Amino acid sequence: MDNLGDGANYAFFNNITYQPAIVPTLYTALAAGELATNPAVYGTYTNSFVLHKNQVIDIVVNNLNPGKHPFHLHGHHFQVIWRFEDEAGSFADSNVTAANFSRVSIKRDTVVVHPNGNIVSRFKSDNPALEAVIANLIKFIDGRARWPMRRLEEHTLGEPYTIRDALELYNLSTWGFVLIRCTYGSQEKWDKFLARVQGRAREMFEKAGLMDVYARMRWTIFEDAAVLDGADILETTRRFVEWVDRGPGGQELVGSVFGTTMAKTNTPRHNFFFHVDEESLESVVDDEKVAKALEEGRALFAGW
């Protein structure tokens, strides 16, 4: 760790301290086309790596300060094939080779690196995703000790700012979500569902002081009990694609970079939708299920 120009203490991976990209990584991955496999498009200070399918990856972490630091890898369980004790120094200075690695290794998703020690962890890239190595979440969240392997985990309260920046960068007039209602048994439950998800979105922008960005948010809701009650994902996908390709969705992009130089479906609003069936509706409006999810520490409302 080291102090930078602002006087704050920061942690580093590969001599880089994490800085969030102006455009969220998922947006870039969707919009970059063939360049999506080039780590440079995600920004120098995101310290990104693009992995191929079924690679065997060894990660060496040197802890060069006197504190114990847990490290976590999203999306995979890794093998701990080597770990030094306190004050062992860096791995490069240890003269350890692959022959010294454990042949029967424990598997973890989090491991503690001892003070001034090091670890070597190994995993197979068999779970396609945008993932991150996170360092000691509580202590270092402001120290920016992150290492995205094509997963840039934005802070929840930072999302309004990344959305604002993306709107300006891509010259987009609106943003938001598309919901397709596939259950019509209770209007009361549907109204409660909308109140919760829309209220959560508004709350985020109020806290960030960005109600001007919230005012540009659009909730596009498909409702038609005669044809959508119980509709499967193929039917809702067909209707969504039609909305993007030949309907109002495509018209939203006129004047933006996506409407002129790139495929329309490269924006999240025009590439994803919410298929709201009875099960997903209940997961949001059933107070007992919500309370249980909170107790178990699971995400609610699709991460909102």
**Count of helix runs:** 10
The residue ranges in which pLDDT falls below 50 over 5 or more consecutive positions are: 134-157, 260-265, 297-304
Helical coverage, percent range = 25-40%
Distance between the termini: 32 Å
Please provide a written account of the structure.
A hairpin with a 5-residue loop joins strand 1 and strand 2. The chain is an alpha+beta fold and 304 residues long. The longest helix has 22 residues. Helix 4 packs across helix 9. The protein is elongated, with a radius of gyration of 23 Å. 22% of the residues are buried. The C terminus is likely disordered. 29% of the residues lie in helices and 20% in strands. The strands form four sheets. It has a four-stranded antiparallel beta sheet, with no helix packed on it.
Provide a compact summary of the structure.
The chain is an alpha+beta fold. 29% of the residues lie in helices and 20% in strands. It is elongated and about 70 Å long.
Attribute tags:
about 300 residues, alpha+beta, 4-stranded antiparallel beta sheet, 10 helices, 13 strands, about 30% helix, disordered C terminus
Please write out the topology.
Elements: E1 2-3, E2 9-10, H1 25-31, E3 56-62, E4 69-73, E5 78-83, E6 107-108, E7 110-113, E8 118-124, E9 131-135, H2 137-140, E10 146-149, H3 159-169, E11 175-181, H4 187-208, H5 211-214, E12 217-222, H6 225-228, H7 233-246, H8 248-251, E13 274-276, H9 278-285, H10 287-296
Parallel strand pairs: 11-12, 11-13
Antiparallel strand pairs: 1-2, 3-8, 4-7, 4-9, 5-6, 5-8, 9-10
